[in-house]
Design brief:
- The structure holds two protein chains of two kinds.
- By secondary structure, chain A is of the alpha/beta class.
- Chain A is built from 13 helices and 16 strands.
- In chain A, the strands form three sheets. Chain A has a six-stranded mixed beta sheet with strand order 15-14-11-12-13-16, with helices on both faces. A five-stranded antiparallel beta sheet of chain A has the order 2-3-1-4-10, covered by helices on one side.
- Chain B has two domains: 137 residues, Alpha-Beta Complex (Aspartate Aminotransferase, domain 1); 238 residues, 3-Layer(aba) Sandwich (Aspartate Aminotransferase, domain 2), CATH 3.40.640.
- In chain B, 41% of the residues lie in helices and 14% in strands.
- Chain B contains twelve helices and twelve strands.
- In chain B, the strands form three sheets. A seven-stranded mixed beta sheet of chain B has the order 2-8-7-6-5-3-4, with helices on both faces. A three-stranded antiparallel beta sheet of chain B has the order 9-10-12.
- In chain B, β5, α7 and β6 form a beta-alpha-beta unit.
- The longest helix of chain B is centred in the C-terminal third of the chain and has 36 residues.
- The radius of gyration of chain B is 21 Å and the shape is globular.
- The chains are: A alpha/beta, B alpha/beta.
- Chains A and B meet through α7 of A and α9 of B.
């Protein structure tokens, strides 16, 4: 940043744009408080300070954290975007100088041929009107950069000028995911496999403000440690959106073997799903979670038909959220690409051994019959043991 | 926990003498062999001496040896050179070829070649099938000397004769016969002397040499992909990996000197394993007794226990075995393709284990592996019953 526009303390300034929080009424302060706390937690190394001025949030950080701040802000639920404004005193010459600097910087990054100036003046005492500021800046920019012309309807670049206690000028707004701040929607447990879907489900619920811990069922030696490491990588990726997230690994081998020995082959997968939901539901209490999240999408596989979900849903004593239920695979894959989990999800480490997968799984189970079949397997003790043996795994940041 | 290594077909542990040679060469002959000063000439002398050693061990002239980074590069140099030929013709190869050869099929088709794949039960190519596949326009035949998964030892004299007889009978132009001999070195007696072939690939780490070094034998120079600084007679530009080359030569020297002792030792280890494994219920020996297999490679199936589960269980007990080709282990589809081409049922293929050993594998370790397999198979069968 040009020295003229860096504050005396050598800090860097960000203007944050909020989304849905704006619609909140009397409880808006609560959402704001959590959003600010999340941002501060993620950028603690740069001594963050956030001030809220009406609908504008200003974040200042110690200089040097620009790359990290860009990463954090682009993943912060509750923000729709952010920009890096220049500031200057409330003087016409200073505004023009800052605006031309802004354009110069943009031209270093990309080619632009048209621009417009958008001015907001909260300080009505300032001698120039918004229109006069826009005209003065527009004229100066055209004079300085001969290739640039004004286009008010579809400009390549918009110079935003806001006159407050000082003047803020900014150009590009970088996108953030929107939604609600992580943790404002309560707490859930995400059933995380190594596939494409469950990380996306976790992301979507996190975006609605749900804090999450992830639960993974590990069946060594029938599934590999590489599969577990893959899930840990996915949990780390999600954790970057969630501020804080733990991975809980449940040893599942004994349960899986018991089901293989005692259940009808065609019902094995459903009983395993049922057992997983039961164990996760037990863990919910221990981890202070009030719901479960799964990556189920209607009819994607045999265990995700209406009838199958009706059965496995019965295993939970808390609500089960399925944010992907109405999405098709293409949409899910697109989101997985956007959040960066896709390439890890497709690594070739299976999360279920072929020994436990029936050739022809049942697709329309009768709920009552399956429940009594599950109960007849007499595995409550095994399920409790699995929940008690669950371990938290440290996530790589 | 003591490690017991049974994956020699993937990489054979380097010999102490090889490691010493590599270290000494790196310390003493670091100069560029292309440099004209005294030290460069010394390095060049080591390079040419190593080439002579390698050529002598392989049974060919030094001028026909090009050093490469290994088997895959050697295969690629030959197969890619088809691109420059005016007469593209047709290509014949077995359906169970290693990925470094089989992966060229789309390329061959792209440049207009007809590709004929031969059946390869248990990895073997039949001379009769090969004869039937030859055409007047056949320009290239790719064979392997020892199959990398099953250890099948091809009847090379008969296969090469099938090609040369065809040429003679039909007055056809010479067909380029390329041999992937990567798995042959250190496992079975091998010499280029009596083989009328046009090119062959070798890799040092399969015969207790260093990794990252191999050789290409070529009767006539192949068209290089890049000539770079003109090294290796313009066949493969780039400064030579002299420590690797010297290590390769040392490994081949050792193998040549000890090949008879090793062959005896392989048979002893093999019979211990076969005697113990063949009477374990749940283990199927996939190599039949009538055919010729490299004595240091055993292929079994523990199906319905998946290969990867058994590999993990054995690994936890210190035994390293593999599911087939190490080059395919990251892509189960590639391995499935090879096993299917070998005529192994999909049920048996799901539980395939390749047990490969070497000159330093002890009889005791072989017995311990067989015992561990017996215990694990029984335990799992009980759990899954």
């Amino acid at each position: 940043m040009n020295d003229a526009y860096v504050s005396a303390e050598n800090r860097e300034l960000y203007l944050l744009k909020i989304g849905e929080i704006w619609l909140k009424g009397s409880n808006r302060k609560l959402f704001e408080r959590v959003l600010v706390r999340n941002i501060k937690a993620m950028l603690a190394a740069y001594r963050p300070y956030v001030s809220i001025q009406g609908d504008r949030y200003f974040l200042s950080l110690d200089a040097g954290g620009r790359d990290e701040a860009a990463g954090v802000l682009s993943r912060t639920f509750g923000l729709t975007g952010y920009c890096m404004p220049l500031t200057c005193p409330k003087e016409k010459a200073a505004i023009i100088s800052a605006a031309t600097e802004l354009v110069r910087r943009e031209l270093k990054l990309r080619s632009i041929t048209t621009f417009k100036v958008a001015c907001r003046r909260s300080d009505k005492g300032f001698s120039l009107s918004s229109y006069e500021i826009a005209c003065a800046v527009g004229d100066a920019v055209r004079e300085e950069f001969s290739g640039l012309t004004v286009n008010l309807s579809r400009p390549d670049f918009t110079i935003s000028v806001e006159v407050r206690e000082q003047v803020y000028l900014y150009g590009t707004t970088y996108p953030a995911p929107g939604g609600l701040p992580a943790g404002t929607g309560g707490k859930g447990l995400l059933m995380l496999s190594g596939g494409i879907d469950s990380p996306v489900a976790g992301y979507l619920m996190g975006k609605r403000g749900l804090a999450l811990d992830a639960v993974y069922f590990h069946a060594y030696p029938y599934t590999s440690d590489e599969a577990k490491d893959k899930v840990a990588s996915l949990a780390s990726m999600l954790s970057a959106y969630m501020v804080r997230m733990r991975l809980i690994v449940v040893p599942f081998t004994d349960v899986q073997l018991h089901i293989r020995r005692h259940a009808l082959e065609k019902e094995r997968t459903l009983h395993m799903r049922y057992a997983m939901v039961r164990i996760t539901s037990m863990l919910a209490k221990q981890y202070h979670a009030s719901c479960l999240v799964t990556g189920e999408s209607l009819s994607q596989v045999a265990s995700q038909t209406v009838q199958s979900i009706a059965y496995t849903n019965d295993a939970s004593s808390v609500p089960v959220f399925r944010p992907l239920i109405g999405m098709d695979k293409e949409e899910i894959i697109r989101t997985a690409h956007e959040i960066g989990t896709y390439e890890t999800s497709i690594l070739p480490y299976e999360d279920c051994c072929t020994l436990f997968s029936p050739k022809h799984p049942i697709t329309k189970p009768k709920k009552e019959r399956l429940i009594s079949a599950f109960n007849a397997m007499d595995m409550e003790k095994l399920l409790v043991q699995a929940a008690e043996a669950a371990e938290q795994q440290r996530l790589q940041s | 926990m003591q490690n017991r290594y049974f994956d020699w077909a993937a990489t054979a542990p380097p010999l102490a003498a090889v490691r010493e040679t590599v270290d000494r060469c790196a310390a003493d002959y670091y100069a560029n062999p292309s440099s004209r000063h005294h030290q460069g000439r010394e390095a060049s002398a080591v390079l040419e001496e190593s080439r002579c050693q390698v050529a002598s061990a392989l049974g060919c002239d030094a001028q026909n040896i090009t050093f490469t980074s290994g088997g895959t590069e050697s295969n690629s140099l030959v197969l890619a050179s088809l691109f420059w030929k005016k007469r593209k013709g047709s290509v014949v190869l077995s359906s169970a070829e290693h990925a470094s050869v089989y992966g060229f099929i789309p390329f061959f088709r792209e440049i207009g070649c007809e590709v004929i794949t031969l059946p390869a039960p248990l990895g073997f190519v039949s001379p009769d099938e090969l004869s039937r596949a030859l055409r007047k326009e056949t320009s290239l035949v790719c064979l392997n000397a020892v199959h990398n998964v099953s250890g099948a030892v091809q009847d090379l004299p008969a296969l090469v004769s099938a090609v040369r007889d065809y040429e003679q009978q039909r007055s056809a132009p010479r067909i380029h016969v390329h041999l992937d001999a990567v798995q042959a070195l250190g496992k079975v007696p091998f010499s280029l002397k009596t083989l009328d072939i046009d090119s062959a690939s070798f890799s040092a780490h399969k015969c207790s040499g260093p990794r990252g070094i191999g050789a290409l034998y070529s009767r006539n120079p192949a068209s290089p992909i890049s000539s770079g600084g003109g090294q290796e007679s313009g066949m493969r530009g780039g400064t030579e990996n002299l420590p690797g080359i010297a290590g390769f030569a040392a490994a081949l020297d050792y193998m040549t000197d000890h090949c008879h002792d090793h062959a005896r030792h392989f048979e002893e280890v093999r019979s211990v394993l076969i005697d113990a494994l063949s009477c374990i219920p749940g283990i199927v020996m996939l190599q039949n007794r009538e055919s010729s297999f490299a004595p240091s490679i055993l292929l079994i199936s523990v199906s319905p226990i998946p290969s990867e589960v058994m590999i993990r269980l054995l690994s936890d007990r210190g035994f390293s075995v593999s599911a087939g080709s190490a080059c395919s282990s990251k892509s189960s589809k590639k391995l499935e393709r090879v096993l299917e081409a070998m005529g192994i049922s999909s049920e048996a293929a799901a539980g395939v284990l390749r047990i490969s050993f070497g000159h330093s594998t002890s009889i005791q370790d072989a017995a311990l592996l067989a015992e561990a397999l017996r215990e694990e198979v029984q335990k799992l069968k009980g759990m899954l019953a």
